Amino acid sequence: MIPDISPQMYSHSSSPQPPIxxxxxxxxxxxxxxxxxxxxxxxxxxxxxxxxxxxxxSPSAPYFALWTRLAEFRQKELSRLxxxxxxxxxxxxxxTLHLVSGRDALYLRPLLQPALDRSLSGSFGKKLTGINLxxxxxxxxxxxxxxxxxxxxxxxxxxxxxxxxxxxxxxxAVRTLVPLVQVPPRGIWGESGQALHTSSEIWLGQxxxxxxxxxxxxxxYLAAFGPASVKDIQVWSGLTRLGKVIDRLRPQLAVFQDxxxxxxxxxxxxxxxxxxxxxxxxxxxEFDNMLLSYVDRSRILESSYRSRVFTVNGIIRSxxxxxxxxxxxxxxxxxRSEAGLVIELFKPLTxxxxxxxxxxxxRLLRFAEADAVxxxxxxxxPV
Length: 383
Description:
Order of helices and strands: HHEHHEEHHHHHEEHHHHEEEHEEEHE
């Protein structure tokens, strides 16, 4: 279980000028929260909750996220959590697909409804003009609860009731208005399957929380990503106007500032290691939340590298961390019984650093391609 981080646990100490935290200090604080300075010995479900969920647009992404953070993690542990419904894949922060514990889904989903509504309006608002959304939600719920269904099938069946409407807009509206979870085999390691959906109420056998706490969500974010600004929390969650929440919590929070003078908030007892704390090489999977949870990503990603990680078609590539910062991207290629890891470097590395990176890379390959007979590491040098 994650620790109780309710506000009353913390005491306030004010100072006229908040201490300054440089980029190195913020980096090490993030790595400590994210279990990247040293792999943690935790059950996967507890890790998922400590991390406030895992980005999951790619079915394999949560597996790589846990492998790089946990000691002795095996794919079957997460697959089992999805199969027994302890963990679910559901649209949450920023209206994107996340893997969270079932209990976290019950409070996060209603809290994030405004962000989901805003995303729907921006993408399909004009195409839904004139449609009674309550009627659409009721019709969509009936369909998804009669049996798991794809969003394409859902849109086509809803078009029978709204023949002039765009089926993609209809299914997107139901995804927003009804808490939909993706059901296995989608998301199960080594299996393939169409993304099929049903309601969280049917899948989890429980109703969403009726009065979820925004303060709880903010504290959970700070535990996983702090120290952070109000805008950082808003970028991560997709919500707005969280300054008032921080104002209510501020007497119980530690307050810092970055080198630009932006106020940063944190849990007083959270780890903030020295900036020269050693960090081993790490491989992050696609869409890792560390790259998506701040306005200013410089604590982990140099701005000059952004276009090499964030693609024009919305993919956030798998990255390499060296000394805690993104220094390259990686991909796995499989040819018959041989598994290869291609590491594209952003800057030159010494032979010793390459050696340690290759050793970690081989461990990654053995995790991802356990049935391969041989493994090789290929470095693509920076141009």
